[in-house]
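User: Could you check the structure of this?
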Amino acid sequence: MAEVADETAYYLNSALSTVALIAKGIRFPAGQWIWVADGTATPASVEHLVLDLFPALRGRRLRTRLLLTDFDVEEFEVAERRDPLSRRRF
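Assistant: Sure, the predicted structure tokens are below.
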């Protein structure tokens, strides 16, 4: 069974250079996701935080996504398989 978010929060997948706001109870997309901020933070503050904490991501475009339903996760995974370098936002 896939792991699900314990709380609505921002999670980072550094391999994908992606930060996602994932709703409580929604499964994580494939890959390693780590908690970086609670769901009340603003996307801009989370982006600054992530770039400060993970200097290796500087110079790479950090993508942000909203994953609030299982359908959102499925669409995210399909888009990643189709175009892993996609730069679409929300």
